Structure formats: C-alpha cells, structure tokens
Amino acid sequence: IFGLPAAQGGDLTPAGHTDSTLALETANNFTWDQKGAESVWFDGETSRATLFLSHGIAPRWEIGLEVPIVSHNTGIFDSFIENWHDAFGLPQNGRKDAPRGQVDYSYDRGDSTAELSMSDTGTGIGDLSLHLGYQLIQSSPGNRRALALRGGIKLPTGDSDRLRGSGATDLHLGLALTDAQSLSRYNLTLFASGGVLWLTEGDILPDQQRDMVGFGSLGFDWAPWRLVSFKLQLDGHSSFYKDSALDQIDSASAQLAIGGTLHLGESDSVDLCVTEDVVVDTASDVVFHVAWNHRF
Length: 296
Known about the structure:
By secondary structure, the protein is mainly β.
C-alpha cells in the first residue's frame, strides 16, 4: 500500500523512446501470531496488474508513470501451496486448520476496537505513482556501467479502507546501478539499487506508522544464451511500523526472487519469477510474477 519503488537498473530509457511493462502478480498470504495483548491474522490473496510507462524526454532524463489495479480475493493457490509444503516436508503453520475461502486481514492491540480489519473481496485502482530519473553515468561500449538517480511520488488514489492504498502521499529518492563490465567474462550482469522512502501520515495504523523507510535490492543476471537469461534478486526494506512485538507489523523484511527473462527480439521480452519471504512472516509466503516488456 506504500510507495515502495520497484527495483530498477542504472540504464534509463533513451531520449525519444518509450518503455512499457505490463506486470501481473499474485501474492498468497497466510500468517498469524499473538504476543501479549497483540494479535495479527493475515489470510488472503492479493493480485496486482500494473502498467509501467517510462519515456526519455531528453538525453539523460526520463519520466515515468505507474498505474496499478489491485484485487483482494480468497486464494486460488492455497491448495497448491499446501501440497507443495507437504511434498517437501515444510511446515504449514496452521494453513490447513484455517477456514477456506476467506479474506481476513486483521490486527488488534487488545483495545475494544480492532486497529485493522478488512475482509472484503473486490478490485479497484491502486495508488498511482510518477517517476523521474537522471543519468549520472551512461554506459558505453568501453564501459558497460550505468548509474542513475531515481525519484518519485505516490499519490493516494486507491481506497485505503479496502487496502488498495495507504491514503497518503509518499516520496522516494535513490540510486540505481547496472554493471555489465566487472563480471562480463561469466556472462553476468550486476544490478543494485537503494534509497529512502518518506511517508506522510496514512489511514492504516497512523499512530504506529514510521515517517521514513530505507529500501534496497541486489541481483544478478546470467545470460548463457542470447534468447534467455536467468535472474536472482534480493529485495529488502526497513519496517513501515513501530511499537509492536509482532514481526508481521514491526520488522525489517527481505524477499528472494528467482526467475528469468525470455528475449523475443530487439523490442520485446517476457519476465517470469517466483518470490519467497526470506525473513519469515514479514512478506507474502509466495508471489508469482509475469511481465511483458516492449520498447516503442
């Protein structure tokens, strides 16, 4: 629900061109805990269809737009994930004992009213984001490294009551690096990014929300063939909330994405990946991601 930016590389869209990405993601969630008077229960599935557009407005300058459609539903992947856990001897952590076919995102601090309670299914627009990038170091045939300064603003266009947005405006600023030079002998490209996200007061747990969050990503692209590359990416961020003993509310998070890209020509490619929560209970159990990329 916050304006945490997607991981990006150091290369910007060339002047006069437009890069487009249509990304489809489904995140399956099931986690619960209770410590003292606090209790949390997150059960449901969230799907997100996002259109990313970026345009090179001048040499070294890029503008972008992100339009998400968010859907909360009861979970079509529950049985698959339970069978996967059983097959590999992984713990279910109460999944099989939970009622089927429900959306329940709730958090209670022991007061008479719940701090968070959302059980509605439905689909709607999320929070729109605008982006701006400046090329600090541009790659060349002799130096295949690129560094960009990236920033953006997220606007409160989504319905916070249905967890399609935070109800607040967020700003981010960071650096993004792509290095295809250092590890070129192994057909490896390094990409990394990091920065700071500033949050204005939102509608979700406003008394516990932090004002500033740090984020970062580190990944590798291995291209053994021209048409296919394999990718490994680690994403992390500090906690969005405070004053809680529960990891689901107040803990730094890390996720590992494993996947790759199928290159369909000079202008088109398809990304596929699966994401797992490295720091358990701080992110979705599993996220399935597919994206189509096209340059005009």
